[in-house]
Write a structure and sequence with these properties.
2 helices; elongated
Length: 70
């Protein structure tokens, strides 16, 4: 009685195989889902960090525009 080789039944994950390409629409849908429903306190923390990052980028851009306008 021989032993069954279960590893033969598993598909290999080779780099040459085609992967699912993610479209911009799927990114947008995921982003909108992220913004819609916070489920944990970690989601709220990530949103707060995102808001702080966004505000700091806006302030930095305003400073750059002011510097070059003078």
């Amino acid at each position: 009685m021989g032993r069954k080789n279960y590893l033969r039944e598993i598909k290999s994950s080779r780099r040459g195989e085609q992967k699912h390409k993610v479209s911009w629409r799927e990114y947008l849908q995921a982003w909108l889902d992220f913004l819609r429903k916070p489920k944990t306190r970690f989601d709220l923390r990530e949103r707060a960090l995102l808001l702080v990052l966004l505000v700091s980028v806006i302030i930095l851009l305003q400073m750059v525009v002011e510097y070059f306008s003078n």
